[in-house]
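Researcher: Structure for this, please.
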Amino acid sequence: MSTVDIRPAIGTALVRRLVEAQFPQWAGLPLERVEPGGSDHVVHRLGGELSVRLPRHRDAVGQAAEELRRLPRLAPRLPLAVPVPVAVGEPGSGYPWPWAVSRWIDGETATAEGLGDSIPAARALAGFLTALAACPTDSGGEVRAPLAERDADTRAAIAALAGVFDARAMTALWDAALAAPAWGRAPVWCHGDLHTGNLLTTGGELSAVIDFGELAVGDPACDLTIAFTLMSARSRAEFRTALGVDADTWARGRGWALATGLNAHVTYAATRPRVAAQTTRQITAALAG
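Model: Predicted structure, token format:
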């Protein structure tokens, strides 16, 4: 296996050794693995106030330091809770990469069944994205790749799934998204991975946005994917109105939803029924508009 493909075994005993060696002030706190874990990180709860996140693969390396640099400055400006990092750990005990300790946020993972038709949730997400886009950017922010860079992969996925979804409709949507004029204003902060798994609820209401590993500056259309992964047609219309999205940005947002949904469906649907159901919903909603 090449170093690019390394996926270290990450157990609770390893996490305990890393915490004890590098952050002895937290060594005596209870440590419990959080399930289900994410595709990029293994997460443990540390005591009542902290979480520990270790990258599963090389592509997620570097997120810890970037979040430590960015999120403490963004958090006070955002209307929903976000996980504020408090420390970055070093490689050790056989684990090869930096890792993060952040403030724990209570909540349940959002679902379309629970929040899909919620007008308050749609408005809250619009408010969050409006506030995020208003946060000052700087020259050091990673730039979000444009939608056009996904063209070859998306057309290949359309062909591969022509027997599952309407290939003609997908091609028309994709062509329209690429033909829409590009974002013509200054680049803004984008979450970059805004889907139901990165939203938390408390008491049935949207309460937090997590996992900022794809945080970048660029065209905010990429974050419109949440309208097609979470929302019903009714709440999606409210979200669009509250956010004040123009037709061109909405067209690019539908393109992002289609591209990311197709990619995940091709990669995971055969082995993960939950992902198959979620991406089917996403692709179908993107086609509906």
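Researcher: Any notable elements?
Model: The radius of gyration is 19 Å. The first helix runs from residue 12 to 22.
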